[in-house]
Amino acid sequence: MLQRLLICCCLLGLLGGCGRPAGPARTPAEEAVYYFKSHQGATMTPHGKIRIETVTEQDGKLRYTTQNGGAWSVTYTKQADGTYQYGTPEEVK
Amino acid sequence: MDRRQFMISSGWAALAVGTPAGYLLVRRQQLRAQARERLLTEALPPLEELSGGHLATMPGRAREEIRRFFHGKCLNVESFVSHICSNSFVEQVGRCRTSQEREDCFLAAFCSRVATEAEIVNHVETIAGEMGSELNAAWRHYCERLGEAWRPQLAGLGAAPLSSDQLLDATGAFIREEIRAAVRTAAANRLPALGETMENIGKSALLLAPLALFGNAGLAVGIPLFVANSIRNVWNYIWSRWQDRRGDFQAALSGRFAMLGNRVGDGFQTEIRLRLNDLYTWRSNAVRNQAEKIVEERIGMFESL
Protein backbone atom coordinates (compact mmCIF):
# COMPACT_ATOMS: atom_id res chain seq x y z
CA MET A 1 0.00 0.00 0.00
CA LEU A 2 2.75 2.37 1.02
CA GLN A 3 4.69 1.44 -2.11
CA ARG A 4 1.72 2.32 -4.37
CA LEU A 5 1.27 5.62 -2.56
CA LEU A 6 4.90 6.52 -3.11
CA ILE A 7 4.74 5.63 -6.82
CA CYS A 8 1.59 7.74 -7.21
CA CYS A 9 3.25 10.70 -5.50
CA CYS A 10 6.26 10.42 -7.82
CA LEU A 11 4.08 10.23 -10.91
CA LEU A 12 2.02 13.22 -9.80
CA GLY A 13 5.21 15.16 -9.09
CA LEU A 14 6.57 14.36 -12.53
CA LEU A 15 3.35 15.27 -14.28
CA GLY A 16 3.13 18.54 -12.35
CA GLY A 17 6.71 19.43 -13.31
CA CYS A 18 6.11 18.81 -17.02
CA GLY A 19 3.49 21.51 -17.30
CA ARG A 20 5.62 24.25 -15.81
CA PRO A 21 7.77 26.51 -17.94
CA ALA A 22 11.47 25.62 -17.97
CA GLY A 23 13.81 27.72 -15.75
CA PRO A 24 15.46 30.75 -17.36
CA ALA A 25 18.24 29.75 -19.79
CA ARG A 26 21.78 30.65 -18.76
CA THR A 27 23.27 33.74 -20.33
CA PRO A 28 26.55 33.20 -22.25
CA ALA A 29 28.41 34.71 -19.29
CA GLU A 30 26.72 32.36 -16.83
CA GLU A 31 27.37 29.46 -19.17
CA ALA A 32 31.06 30.36 -19.33
CA VAL A 33 31.27 30.51 -15.52
CA TYR A 34 29.40 27.21 -15.19
CA TYR A 35 31.67 25.47 -17.73
CA PHE A 36 34.81 26.90 -16.13
CA LYS A 37 33.73 25.81 -12.66
CA SER A 38 32.85 22.30 -13.80
CA HIS A 39 35.97 21.72 -15.95
CA GLN A 40 38.82 23.63 -14.32
CA GLY A 41 38.50 22.37 -10.75
CA ALA A 42 41.28 19.85 -11.34
CA THR A 43 43.53 22.23 -13.25
CA MET A 44 46.88 23.14 -11.76
CA THR A 45 48.59 26.35 -12.92
CA PRO A 46 52.10 27.69 -12.25
CA HIS A 47 50.39 29.84 -9.61
CA GLY A 48 48.63 26.94 -7.89
CA LYS A 49 45.11 25.51 -8.17
CA ILE A 50 42.18 27.67 -9.15
CA ARG A 51 39.83 28.60 -6.31
CA ILE A 52 36.65 27.59 -8.05
CA GLU A 53 34.41 29.38 -5.54
CA THR A 54 35.94 32.71 -6.62
CA VAL A 55 35.07 32.43 -10.35
CA THR A 56 32.96 35.29 -11.70
CA GLU A 57 32.38 36.93 -15.07
CA GLN A 58 32.98 40.60 -15.68
CA ASP A 59 33.16 42.57 -18.93
CA GLY A 60 33.58 39.49 -21.10
CA LYS A 61 36.35 38.06 -18.95
CA LEU A 62 36.44 35.41 -16.28
CA ARG A 63 37.93 36.45 -12.94
CA TYR A 64 39.28 34.08 -10.34
CA THR A 65 41.99 33.70 -7.73
CA THR A 66 44.63 31.00 -7.42
CA GLN A 67 46.09 29.23 -4.41
CA ASN A 68 49.05 31.61 -4.25
CA GLY A 69 46.61 34.49 -3.62
CA GLY A 70 46.92 36.02 -7.10
CA ALA A 71 43.79 37.39 -8.79
CA TRP A 72 43.42 36.81 -12.54
CA SER A 73 41.28 37.89 -15.44
CA VAL A 74 41.15 35.81 -18.64
CA THR A 75 39.40 36.06 -21.99
CA TYR A 76 37.37 33.10 -23.24
CA THR A 77 35.91 31.93 -26.55
CA LYS A 78 33.33 29.23 -26.98
CA GLN A 79 34.32 26.67 -29.64
CA ALA A 80 32.04 24.93 -32.12
CA ASP A 81 32.36 21.67 -30.17
CA GLY A 82 31.06 23.34 -27.00
CA THR A 83 34.45 23.56 -25.27
CA TYR A 84 36.13 26.84 -24.40
CA GLN A 85 39.50 28.26 -25.40
CA TYR A 86 41.21 30.61 -22.95
CA GLY A 87 43.70 33.40 -23.51
CA THR A 88 46.71 34.38 -21.41
CA PRO A 89 45.45 35.60 -18.04
CA GLU A 90 46.31 39.03 -16.75
CA GLU A 91 47.01 39.61 -13.10
CA VAL A 92 44.43 41.85 -11.45
CA LYS A 93 46.23 44.26 -9.14
CA MET B 1 138.92 52.51 -32.40
CA ASP B 2 138.77 49.10 -30.78
CA ARG B 3 135.66 47.13 -30.28
CA ARG B 4 135.17 48.15 -26.65
CA GLN B 5 135.48 51.85 -27.41
CA PHE B 6 133.09 51.46 -30.32
CA MET B 7 130.44 49.83 -28.06
CA ILE B 8 130.75 52.58 -25.45
CA SER B 9 130.49 55.44 -27.92
CA SER B 10 127.58 53.77 -29.73
CA GLY B 11 125.80 53.33 -26.42
CA TRP B 12 126.19 56.97 -25.50
CA ALA B 13 124.97 58.02 -28.95
CA ALA B 14 121.93 55.77 -28.69
CA LEU B 15 121.22 57.12 -25.21
CA ALA B 16 121.57 60.73 -26.45
CA VAL B 17 119.12 60.11 -29.29
CA GLY B 18 116.92 57.63 -27.43
CA THR B 19 116.42 59.35 -24.12
CA PRO B 20 114.23 62.22 -25.36
CA ALA B 21 112.23 59.84 -27.56
CA GLY B 22 111.92 57.33 -24.73
CA TYR B 23 110.94 60.08 -22.36
CA LEU B 24 108.27 61.28 -24.78
CA LEU B 25 106.92 57.76 -25.25
CA VAL B 26 106.71 57.15 -21.51
CA ARG B 27 105.24 60.58 -20.96
CA ARG B 28 102.63 60.00 -23.67
CA GLN B 29 101.66 56.69 -22.12
CA GLN B 30 101.27 58.35 -18.72
CA LEU B 31 99.13 61.18 -20.09
CA ARG B 32 96.97 58.76 -22.03
CA ALA B 33 96.50 56.54 -18.98
CA GLN B 34 95.49 59.55 -16.87
CA ALA B 35 93.05 60.84 -19.49
CA ARG B 36 91.59 57.36 -20.01
CA GLU B 37 91.18 56.96 -16.26
CA ARG B 38 89.31 60.27 -16.01
CA LEU B 39 86.99 59.33 -18.89
CA LEU B 40 86.25 55.89 -17.49
CA THR B 41 85.66 57.25 -13.98
CA GLU B 42 82.81 59.26 -15.48
CA ALA B 43 81.57 56.41 -17.68
CA LEU B 44 81.75 53.10 -15.85
CA PRO B 45 80.06 53.62 -12.44
CA PRO B 46 76.78 54.88 -14.00
CA LEU B 47 76.91 51.98 -16.49
CA GLU B 48 77.37 49.51 -13.65
CA GLU B 49 74.44 51.09 -11.82
CA LEU B 50 72.28 50.92 -14.95
CA SER B 51 73.10 47.27 -15.59
CA GLY B 52 72.60 46.41 -11.93
CA GLY B 53 69.09 47.86 -12.12
CA HIS B 54 68.30 45.82 -15.23
CA LEU B 55 69.70 42.64 -13.69
CA ALA B 56 67.67 43.19 -10.54
CA THR B 57 64.32 43.50 -12.32
CA MET B 58 64.32 42.09 -15.87
CA PRO B 59 65.12 38.39 -15.32
CA GLY B 60 62.39 38.13 -12.67
CA ARG B 61 59.91 39.91 -14.90
CA ALA B 62 60.77 37.61 -17.80
CA ARG B 63 60.15 34.60 -15.54
CA GLU B 64 56.74 35.90 -14.49
CA GLU B 65 55.77 36.61 -18.09
CA ILE B 66 56.55 33.01 -19.05
CA ARG B 67 54.67 31.63 -16.03
CA ARG B 68 51.65 33.76 -16.92
CA PHE B 69 51.80 32.45 -20.50
CA PHE B 70 51.87 28.83 -19.27
CA HIS B 71 49.05 29.60 -16.82
CA GLY B 72 46.85 30.27 -19.87
CA LYS B 73 48.07 27.06 -21.49
CA CYS B 74 47.17 25.06 -18.36
CA LEU B 75 43.59 26.27 -18.76
CA ASN B 76 43.57 24.75 -22.27
CA VAL B 77 44.94 21.38 -21.14
CA GLU B 78 41.36 20.11 -20.74
CA SER B 79 40.84 20.34 -24.51
CA PHE B 80 44.27 18.71 -25.13
CA VAL B 81 43.46 15.82 -22.77
CA SER B 82 40.10 15.10 -24.36
CA HIS B 83 41.86 15.07 -27.76
CA ILE B 84 44.69 12.70 -26.81
CA CYS B 85 42.18 10.40 -25.07
CA SER B 86 39.98 10.27 -28.19
CA ASN B 87 39.84 7.08 -30.24
CA SER B 88 41.20 8.79 -33.34
CA PHE B 89 44.33 9.95 -31.51
CA VAL B 90 44.85 6.56 -29.84
CA GLU B 91 44.73 4.96 -33.30
CA GLN B 92 47.13 7.57 -34.65
CA VAL B 93 49.64 6.86 -31.87
CA GLY B 94 49.19 3.13 -32.45
CA ARG B 95 50.40 3.58 -36.02
CA CYS B 96 53.67 5.22 -34.88
CA ARG B 97 56.61 2.88 -35.34
CA THR B 98 59.29 4.68 -33.31
CA SER B 99 59.38 6.72 -30.11
CA GLN B 100 60.46 9.72 -32.21
CA GLU B 101 57.29 9.44 -34.31
CA ARG B 102 55.20 9.22 -31.13
CA GLU B 103 56.94 12.29 -29.73
CA ASP B 104 56.23 14.19 -32.95
CA CYS B 105 52.60 13.06 -32.74
CA PHE B 106 52.24 14.43 -29.19
CA LEU B 107 54.08 17.61 -30.15
CA ALA B 108 51.66 18.20 -33.04
CA ALA B 109 48.66 17.61 -30.72
CA PHE B 110 50.15 19.93 -28.13
CA CYS B 111 50.76 22.62 -30.73
CA SER B 112 47.23 22.36 -32.14
CA ARG B 113 45.38 22.33 -28.80
CA VAL B 114 47.56 24.17 -26.30
CA ALA B 115 50.24 26.27 -27.95
CA THR B 116 51.92 26.33 -31.34
CA GLU B 117 55.68 26.48 -31.50
CA ALA B 118 55.33 29.85 -33.25
CA GLU B 119 53.23 31.10 -30.34
CA ILE B 120 55.94 30.15 -27.84
CA VAL B 121 58.67 31.72 -29.97
CA ASN B 122 56.52 34.81 -30.58
CA HIS B 123 55.93 35.14 -26.87
CA VAL B 124 59.65 34.88 -26.14
CA GLU B 125 60.28 37.44 -28.91
CA THR B 126 57.60 39.77 -27.57
CA ILE B 127 59.13 39.70 -24.10
CA ALA B 128 62.60 40.23 -25.60
CA GLY B 129 61.23 43.03 -27.78
CA GLU B 130 59.64 44.89 -24.87
CA MET B 131 62.69 44.50 -22.68
CA GLY B 132 64.98 45.30 -25.60
CA SER B 133 63.16 48.60 -26.14
CA GLU B 134 63.63 49.43 -22.46
CA LEU B 135 67.32 48.53 -22.68
CA ASN B 136 67.75 50.71 -25.77
CA ALA B 137 65.92 53.67 -24.23
CA ALA B 138 68.04 53.40 -21.08
CA TRP B 139 71.21 53.14 -23.21
CA ARG B 140 70.24 56.25 -25.18
CA HIS B 141 69.70 58.12 -21.92
CA TYR B 142 73.05 56.84 -20.65
CA CYS B 143 74.83 58.05 -23.82
CA GLU B 144 73.23 61.49 -23.42
CA ARG B 145 74.49 61.70 -19.85
CA LEU B 146 77.92 60.38 -20.86
CA GLY B 147 78.22 63.00 -23.61
CA GLU B 148 77.60 65.69 -20.98
CA ALA B 149 79.91 64.08 -18.41
CA TRP B 150 82.75 63.83 -20.95
CA ARG B 151 82.32 67.41 -22.19
CA PRO B 152 84.87 69.00 -19.76
CA GLN B 153 87.33 66.12 -20.23
CA LEU B 154 87.13 66.45 -24.00
CA ALA B 155 87.48 70.24 -23.77
CA GLY B 156 90.64 69.70 -21.70
CA LEU B 157 91.98 67.51 -24.50
CA GLY B 158 91.04 70.11 -27.11
CA ALA B 159 88.32 67.90 -28.60
CA ALA B 160 84.77 68.76 -29.57
CA PRO B 161 82.03 67.32 -27.34
CA LEU B 162 80.40 64.06 -28.44
CA SER B 163 76.67 64.01 -29.05
CA SER B 164 74.55 61.11 -27.83
CA ASP B 165 74.02 60.06 -31.46
CA GLN B 166 77.78 59.95 -32.06
CA LEU B 167 78.25 57.85 -28.94
CA LEU B 168 75.32 55.60 -29.88
CA ASP B 169 76.74 55.05 -33.39
CA ALA B 170 80.27 54.38 -32.18
CA THR B 171 79.31 52.00 -29.36
CA GLY B 172 76.49 50.42 -31.40
CA ALA B 173 78.89 49.34 -34.14
CA PHE B 174 81.16 47.76 -31.54
CA ILE B 175 78.31 45.90 -29.80
CA ARG B 176 76.80 44.66 -33.09
CA GLU B 177 80.17 43.16 -33.95
CA GLU B 178 80.22 41.38 -30.57
CA ILE B 179 76.72 39.98 -31.22
CA ARG B 180 77.79 38.80 -34.69
CA ALA B 181 80.79 37.08 -33.13
CA ALA B 182 78.48 35.34 -30.63
CA VAL B 183 76.23 34.19 -33.51
CA ARG B 184 79.24 32.84 -35.42
CA THR B 185 80.45 30.81 -32.45
CA ALA B 186 77.01 29.25 -31.81
CA ALA B 187 77.01 25.53 -32.58
CA ALA B 188 75.26 24.47 -35.80
CA ASN B 189 72.47 22.57 -34.00
CA ARG B 190 71.91 25.35 -31.51
CA LEU B 191 71.16 28.27 -33.75
CA PRO B 192 70.42 31.47 -31.87
CA ALA B 193 66.84 32.77 -32.00
CA LEU B 194 68.02 35.84 -33.85
CA GLY B 195 66.49 37.35 -36.95
CA GLU B 196 68.35 38.80 -39.89
CA THR B 197 68.40 42.32 -38.57
CA MET B 198 70.20 43.68 -35.58
CA GLU B 199 68.66 47.13 -35.60
CA ASN B 200 67.36 46.58 -32.11
CA ILE B 201 70.52 45.81 -30.13
CA GLY B 202 68.74 45.17 -26.83
CA LYS B 203 66.32 42.68 -28.39
CA SER B 204 69.07 41.00 -30.44
CA ALA B 205 71.23 40.57 -27.37
CA LEU B 206 68.37 38.94 -25.45
CA LEU B 207 67.42 36.70 -28.37
CA LEU B 208 70.82 35.03 -28.39
CA ALA B 209 69.06 32.29 -26.39
CA PRO B 210 69.70 29.10 -28.38
CA LEU B 211 67.01 27.33 -30.42
CA ALA B 212 66.46 23.61 -30.76
CA LEU B 213 65.39 22.44 -34.18
CA PHE B 214 63.02 19.52 -34.72
CA GLY B 215 62.71 18.48 -38.31
CA ASN B 216 61.51 14.88 -38.45
CA ALA B 217 58.24 13.61 -39.95
CA GLY B 218 57.66 16.82 -41.85
CA LEU B 219 57.44 18.76 -38.63
CA ALA B 220 59.73 21.76 -38.79
CA VAL B 221 59.63 23.34 -35.38
CA GLY B 222 61.97 25.83 -33.84
CA ILE B 223 61.50 26.40 -30.14
CA PRO B 224 63.93 27.72 -27.56
CA LEU B 225 66.18 24.96 -26.29
CA PHE B 226 65.21 25.42 -22.66
CA VAL B 227 61.55 24.88 -23.64
CA ALA B 228 62.37 21.78 -25.70
CA ASN B 229 64.35 20.22 -22.86
CA SER B 230 61.51 20.79 -20.42
CA ILE B 231 58.73 19.64 -22.78
CA ARG B 232 60.53 16.34 -23.39
CA ASN B 233 59.91 15.43 -19.74
CA VAL B 234 56.17 15.98 -20.27
CA TRP B 235 56.09 13.64 -23.33
CA ASN B 236 57.85 10.97 -21.28
CA TYR B 237 55.28 11.39 -18.53
CA ILE B 238 52.32 11.20 -20.95
CA TRP B 239 53.76 8.04 -22.48
CA SER B 240 54.35 6.46 -19.06
CA ARG B 241 50.65 7.05 -18.23
CA TRP B 242 49.41 6.11 -21.70
CA GLN B 243 48.02 2.70 -20.71
CA ASP B 244 46.41 4.20 -17.61
CA ARG B 245 44.41 7.19 -18.85
CA ARG B 246 42.10 7.62 -15.90
CA GLY B 247 39.88 10.54 -14.90
CA ASP B 248 42.67 12.41 -13.12
CA PHE B 249 44.70 12.68 -16.33
CA GLN B 250 43.74 16.35 -16.70
CA ALA B 251 44.86 17.19 -13.16
CA ALA B 252 48.09 15.24 -13.59
CA LEU B 253 48.86 16.78 -16.99
CA SER B 254 48.01 20.35 -16.03
CA GLY B 255 50.22 19.81 -12.98
CA ARG B 256 53.03 18.78 -15.31
CA PHE B 257 52.45 21.81 -17.53
CA ALA B 258 52.37 24.03 -14.46
CA MET B 259 55.72 22.59 -13.40
CA LEU B 260 56.92 23.02 -16.97
CA GLY B 261 55.84 26.66 -16.87
CA ASN B 262 57.78 27.17 -13.67
CA ARG B 263 60.82 25.35 -15.06
CA VAL B 264 60.72 27.22 -18.38
CA GLY B 265 60.25 30.46 -16.45
CA ASP B 266 63.33 29.67 -14.38
CA GLY B 267 65.25 28.75 -17.55
CA PHE B 268 64.23 31.97 -19.25
CA GLN B 269 65.18 33.96 -16.17
CA THR B 270 68.65 32.38 -16.26
CA GLU B 271 68.99 33.02 -20.01
CA ILE B 272 67.96 36.66 -19.65
CA ARG B 273 70.41 37.12 -16.78
CA LEU B 274 73.24 35.65 -18.90
CA ARG B 275 72.30 37.82 -21.89
CA LEU B 276 72.16 40.95 -19.73
CA ASN B 277 75.58 40.10 -18.30
CA ASP B 278 76.94 39.70 -21.83
CA LEU B 279 75.34 42.98 -22.88
CA TYR B 280 76.91 44.73 -19.88
CA THR B 281 80.34 43.33 -20.81
CA TRP B 282 79.93 44.44 -24.44
CA ARG B 283 78.72 47.89 -23.46
CA SER B 284 81.53 48.48 -20.98
CA ASN B 285 84.05 47.24 -23.58
CA ALA B 286 82.45 49.59 -26.13
CA VAL B 287 82.84 52.51 -23.73
CA ARG B 288 86.48 51.55 -22.96
CA ASN B 289 87.12 51.27 -26.69
CA GLN B 290 85.64 54.73 -27.26
CA ALA B 291 87.74 56.23 -24.43
CA GLU B 292 90.85 54.61 -25.90
CA LYS B 293 90.10 56.05 -29.34
CA ILE B 294 89.68 59.54 -27.89
CA VAL B 295 92.98 59.52 -25.98
CA GLU B 296 94.86 58.02 -28.91
CA GLU B 297 93.53 60.71 -31.24
CA ARG B 298 94.06 63.61 -28.84
CA ILE B 299 97.34 62.73 -27.08
CA GLY B 300 100.25 62.30 -29.46
CA MET B 301 103.96 63.00 -29.16
CA PHE B 302 103.55 66.78 -29.43
CA GLU B 303 100.95 66.86 -26.64
CA SER B 304 103.46 65.02 -24.43
CA LEU B 305 105.98 67.86 -24.61
Oligomer: heterodimer
Shape of chain A: globular
Helix content of chain B: over 70%
Enumerate the spans of chain B where pLDDT stays under 50 for 5 or more consecutive residues: 187-191, 211-222
Number of helices of chain A: 2
Strand order of the largest sheet of chain B: 1-2
Mean pLDDT of chain A: 83
Structure, explained:
Chain A has 93 residues and is α+β, with helices and mostly antiparallel strands. In chain A, 32% of the residues lie in helices and 34% in strands. In chain A, strands 1, 2, 3, 4, 5 and 6 form a 6-stranded antiparallel sheet that branches. In chain A, strand 2 (48-58) and strand 3 (61-66) form a beta hairpin. Chain A starts with a helix and ends with a strand. The model of chain A has no long low-confidence stretch (mean pLDDT 83). Helix content of chain B is 78%, strand content 3%. The radius of gyration of chain B is 29 Å and the shape is elongated. Chain B has 305 residues and is mainly α. In chain B, helix 5 packs across helix 6. Chain B has one domain. Chain B has helices at 3-75, 77-84, 87-94, 99-113, 117-156, 164-185, 201-206, 225-240, 249-298, and strands spanning 211-214, 221-224. The interface between A and B is medium-sized, with 19 and 24 residues.
